[in-house]
Specification:
OB fold (Dihydrolipoamide Acetyltransferase, E2P); 5 strands
């Protein structure tokens, strides 16, 4: 689910990208015991096609995202895990 709306920007090479945040909540089984899973993850959708598709995503929108995980270094030196989207599908 989208929990922070897309912000449109361009990188230093002039490639447009949208950055937004998704949230995942589910119940999983680990060692035969139920466990609640929760994560918020920043998403980068680069290129004109993906930025056009993602700029109108609303907070609360259910999405399915395919892509890869990458480590980004923040200005304060901390590392952040970011999902770089290849495709973004609206579910609802």
């Amino acid at each position: 689910m989208v929990c922070k709306a897309a912000k449109l920007q361009s990188n230093v090479a002039g490639v447009p990208y949208a950055q937004f945040v998704v949230e995942h909540r589910s119940e999983q089984v680990e060692a035969d015991m139920p466990r609640s899973a929760y994560v918020r993850l920043a998403v980068i959708a680069a290129g004109q096609t993906l930025t056009t598709e993602t700029q109108n995503l609303a907070v609360g929108q259910q999405v399915e995202i395919h892509g890869f995980l990458h480590r980004h270094q923040q200005a304060n030196g901390l590392a952040q895990l970011v999902l770089h989207a290849d495709t973004v599908y609206r579910i609802s």
